[in-house]
Amino acid sequence: MLKKSVLLILTSILIVSCSNNPEKYIEHIEGYWEIERVTLKDGSTKEYKFNDTIDFISIEDSLQGVRKKLKPNFMGTFETSNNAETFTIRIENDSLNIYYETAFDSWKETILLATKDQLKVVSKNDAVFLYKRYEPLNLD
Question: Which of these, 33, 60, 108, 121, has the minimum number of CB atoms within 10 Å of its CB?
Answer without folding.
Answer: 60
